[in-house]
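User: Can you predict the 3D structure for this chain?
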Amino acid sequence: MMILKGYLEVARIDNWIGWIFCFGFGSVFLGLPPPERIAVLFFAFSFATAGIFILNQYFDKEEDRENTAKSGLPVASGRMAPRTALILSLSLMVSCLFLVFLVNARLMSLFLVYLALWTAYSAPPFRLKAVPAIDFVVSGIGAGLLPFLIGLGVSYQQNIDVSLIVVSTVPLMLAHSSGHILQALGDYEADRKTGVQTFVVKYGIKKGIFVAGFLSLINVFLVFIYAAFGLLPSNYFLAFFLPLPLCIPIVRRYVSTIKNPTAENFVSLQKAARKYGIVIMVVVGAYVLVGKILGL
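Assistant: Here is the predicted structure, written as structure tokens:
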């Protein structure tokens, strides 16, 4: 039981709930696929994502030891040997690809791109997490776009409106890019000490706060832009408006952080974004799912 608990802890499942949302949103975007297919591919996606997070801890163990919020992670704290973490990560990735091959080999290329991008993010020689601006762009693509496309592949749809996919994935990418910057703000001191040149480390805390807020602001105005150009079906408008009241507590924390950019306020902002972000995902996900069930 303790071993299983350790494996779940190193997988850091609570950190990729937003990734699961993007996968689930893509899965039901064009209709409800057979439950057995989505179940198997959900496990494949979960194995891949868990492997990605464990691999990141393997390469980030030194930085995590300098980070008070991450020093207790299994690899950084020494509770799991780096070699064990690496073997576990690779085993999960191989298991993922095996499941994909059994159920839908056509999705293999998407999963390979997904795994390759996040490996390049964490591992040398690319180490994209240490390339300013590229770090949060990779997060937008890898945590927003690719999980959505993988989920979309579950439905086997042939005729897909590309413009509708673009309209739906841009908010996901912006949200994940903004969230990545918020995480980097919390990691600022540890990254600066260990020489990890994230966007926030290179350009400063104030610019990091500004860019995170700007990306989120674009998301708020997207619905009006989409409506003005007729890019979004009317039945999707409510999915954009429903989360707006839930953004108010996040905005308040954001304003407090701008006024006083302390580590305590960074943590408070991250917690608010995660807490209300989960509620937003549940609300939007339920709206979309009910709409698909009712054939709307």
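The mean pLDDT is 91. The chain has two domains: 35-126, 156-296.
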